[in-house]
Amino acid sequence: MLLTTVFTSGLIFSGCDVVYDYSSCRDTVVRFRYTYRGADRFDSYISKIDYYLFNDAGEFVDELDHVAGTPSMVDVSELPDGSYTVVALANLDDYASLPELNTINLDQFAITVTQLHNSARGKFANGDPLFWGEQRFHIGGGYKSLYISEMACIHCLLTVKVEWEGVPEHSEGYRFHLDGIGEEVAMHATDRDLVIDNKTHPNAKYSDAGMAEDVPLRRFALQAQLCTLRYTDDNMPSFQLMHGETPVLKQPLSIGEVFSRWDRHPDRDPVQDYELRIVINRNGGITLYPSLAVDVADWQDGGILK
């Protein structure tokens, strides 16, 4: 007799229609989803995805293709009996590099930021909106199973807008800098990882590495979205506005100090999507706001830095 199970969030249900009509569950399949605001938003946020298979000893086996027409699913029915782990990595373009998989163990699997900014040697480029997931599964015993795994957002989006009280000194040549960003993130979960809303977020390694993004001046303002690896409560970058090689702000702006003032805690946010509005005053000081909108109901004075 064929037995079928559905594994999701640590629970086991008999019958495949608990999730959706699963074509009689003839195969063992791993399905990844990205739940955001109460619904699976996989198709909305994930444009490409790669799957990496490791055996029970943690050795790399192969890359897996997704089910035709369904990027969120991989069919693992043809694998030999045994226990495996599949790692899903979404939206990676050329921002980070993979290790030589045949030479590492699953515990050593990590990606490292490598893409440099075009005109600022030594500074990394704007990042990719990365998502990650991992699922351990078993083949054998006559079971045909559907494993469901949640993906986590492992990037941070910081949208920065800079304005002047008066007229900016230059009409072009501006660049946003972040220093102290994440440079490497693990692709394997451990018991030391941060868990938010039942989603595991793997550890990242931080350094004094920086990123840069050229920003055109439009209507006397600068605006860009800066994408990096996730922030943590203890690891947030500093911001500086550059014109050529000359700093515009009197001193780098500590994002950690600003977030502390506004009671923002990245370790509590499964999705890190932040805004920061900076107004450069005539005296060279800056005024900060937690929203790009000038008139919002929950407007909060960010304070003035001299």
In CATH's first tier, which class of the largest domain applies?
Mainly Beta
End-to-end distance: 75 Å
Give the beta-strand count.
29
Helical content stands at under 10%
Radius of gyration: 23 Å
Tell me the domain tally: 2
Extract low-pLDDT stretches.
Answer: 1-24, 295-306
Number of helices: 2
Structural account:
There is one protein chain. With 306 residues, this protein is mainly beta. It folds into 2 domains: 150 residues, Immunoglobulin-like (Sandwich), CATH 2.60.40.2100; 151 residues, Immunoglobulin-like. Helix content is 4%, strand content 46%. The protein is built from 2 helices and 29 strands. Strands 12, 17, 22, 24, 25 and 26 form a 6-stranded mixed β-sheet that branches. The protein is elongated and about 75 Å long. The protein starts with a strand and ends with a strand. The N terminus and C terminus are likely disordered.
Short description:
The chain has helices spanning 42-45, 255-261, and strands at 3-8, 11-14, 29-33, 35-36, 39-40, 49-55, 60-64, 73-75, 82-90, 96-97, 110-113, 123-124, 131-139, 143-150, 152-153, 155-164, 174-179, 182-186, 194-196, 199-201, 204-206, 210-215, 221-229, 238-243, 246-247, 253-254, 272-280, 286-289, 304-305. It is mainly beta and 306 residues long.
How would the blueprint of this fold be written?
Blueprint: E1 3-8, E2 11-14, E3 29-33, E4 35-36, E5 39-40, H1 42-45, E6 49-55, E7 60-64, E8 73-75, E9 82-90, E10 96-97, E11 110-113, E12 123-124, E13 131-139, E14 143-150, E15 152-153, E16 155-164, E17 174-179, E18 182-186, E19 194-196, E20 199-201, E21 204-206, E22 210-215, E23 221-229, E24 238-243, E25 246-247, E26 253-254, H2 255-261, E27 272-280, E28 286-289, E29 304-305
Parallel strand pairs: 1-14, 3-14, 12-22, 16-27
Antiparallel strand pairs: 1-2, 3-8, 4-5, 6-7, 6-9, 9-13, 10-11, 11-18, 13-15, 16-23, 17-22, 17-24, 18-21, 19-20, 24-25, 24-26, 27-28, 28-29
